[in-house]
Each structure stands twice: as structure tokens, then as C-alpha cells.
Amino acid sequence: MEKIKSILIDDEIACTEALKIELEMYCPQIEIIASCNTAEDGLAKIVALKPDLVFLDIEMPWMNGFELLRQLNQINFEVIFITAYDQFALKAFEFSAVDYLLKPIRKQELISAVQKVEQRRSKSFSTEHIEAMLSNINFLAKDFSSIAVPTGEGLEFIPVEEIIYCEADNNYTFIHKSCGNSILLSKTLKEVEGMLSNHSFFRIHQSFLINMKHLRRYIRGQGGFVVMSNKKELPVSRSKKEDLMDSFKG
């Protein structure tokens, strides 16, 4: 059986070492030709060694996994994304990835992902597949106008402009929309803040993240409060007041 030449890329040495051990134990069809702990080294090894498969961590300093792929003129290998954050899962699929693995990696999910690679390799690797992946990479480089949130039926895509504010509820977050409906999301407000970091949102309070495009008034006080487009009044914490004032100057 022909081995699948693979490169492991993760900025955490412990993660690449653990993955190497698991692959040797459960996936004998994998041949590890390089293990890299920086995106720069990973990029160089991909160009030099021409792997069949890359296990690629998404979140890395200086250059994340998506940015690494955008540096390549051609992607003629399979990709299995690895992440500790499941909000990246949808992006991974849009990249035409074989699969994604959440840390800590589970044995059966690892085996299943590698089997998918084998199935794809048994067919001719089409130019269209490569072009589709590159097209998706370029798409992801742009600013998203919607976010995907899980529902009981699947995913709901919410235009960012429809979000008035987000409200923390312990380890959950309510997303309040301009239509008057609210969605309960099983993520912390900090995680939601990260999802919306490329948009005009501001954390005014431990419990509230507002869309500045829906801000209508600011009322002074110790911290003061804001009035949103749906007439909802939300408190501004004293620690956030100065930063909020500075954002008005911009």
C-alpha cells in the first residue's frame, strides 16, 4: 500500500508530538515526512517536500493556517485542519478541506479523516478541486457580511447588519436582531466577540457587546448608558467609558 506523505504543522510542540504518536498507532498508511512548529517552516516544507496531505493548525502566531495557504501558488495536496475553536469548522469546509479535527483529537475522528483522504486519493485529483480551494481561500480573505450560528435544524446565517447587540447569559449568548427576534447561542460573549472582531462591534460592559451602527444615543453618568436602534437602554461600565468615548473620535 502506497504511503500518504504527510506534514504536521502546529505551533504547539506537544500537539505535533501527540499527533505523530496517534498517527503511528492508528493510521499506518500515513508517512510523516516533516513536523513543523511555525507557519514559516511549514510553508517552506510544503514547497520543498511536496506532501500528499497536510495536518494544519488554524490558529498560529504571525501567520494562521488560512494565511499560510494563501501564500501558495498551487495547492495540490489534501488538507485536514486542526483547531481548538469550533467556530472555524465552517470556514474549513468552505476551504474544501477533507475534514477538520477539534483538539483534543479523538482516535475515531482521526481515523475517519484519514480514510476520507484515502477515498479522495483513489480518484483522480481534479484541477477543478484545486481551483475551488484557491477560490475559497480568496473569498475567506475578505470581510464576511454574515455569521453562521448553530440551530436545532443546522446553521442560520445572520447578516451582521441585523445584529443590534449581544447579551451574555453565563456560558451562553443572546443575539438580539433588528427584526425583534433573539437567538440563544451556546457560546460565551467573549467567543462571539471574537467572531465579530472584523465588524463594528464594541464591548461596552461585561454583559453587552453592541453593534455601533445601531447605536442611537449615549447618556452620561458614572459609566452612562447607550440607547440602541430598538430603543433598548444598555449600561456602559466605568472601565469601558473612556474607550467608548475614544471610538466616537475615530
Q: What is this entry, summarized?
A:
With 250 residues, this protein is α/β, with parallel strands linked by helices. The chain is 34% helix and 30% strand. The protein has a five-stranded parallel β-sheet with strand order 2-1-3-4-5, sandwiched between helices. A five-stranded antiparallel β-sheet has the order 10-9-8-12-11.
Number of strands: 15
Q: What's the helix-strand series?
A: EHEHEHEHEHHEEEEEHEEEEEH
Q: What proportion of the residues is helical, as a percent range?
A: 25-40%
Largest beta sheet: strand ordering: 2-1-3-4-5
Q: Number of DSSP helices?
A: 8
Q: Assess the beta-strand content as a share of residues.
A: 25-35%
The unreliable regions are none
Give me the secondary-structure topology.
Elements: E1 4-9, H1 13-26, E2 30-36, H2 39-49, E3 53-57, H3 65-70, E4 78-83, H4 89-94, E5 99-102, H5 107-121, H6 127-140, E6 146-150, E7 155-159, E8 163-169, E9 172-177, E10 182-185, H7 189-195, E11 201-205, E12 208-211, E13 215-219, E14 225-228, E15 233-235, H8 238-249
Parallel strand pairs: 1-2, 1-3, 3-4, 4-5
Antiparallel strand pairs: 6-7, 8-9, 8-12, 9-10, 11-12, 13-14, 14-15
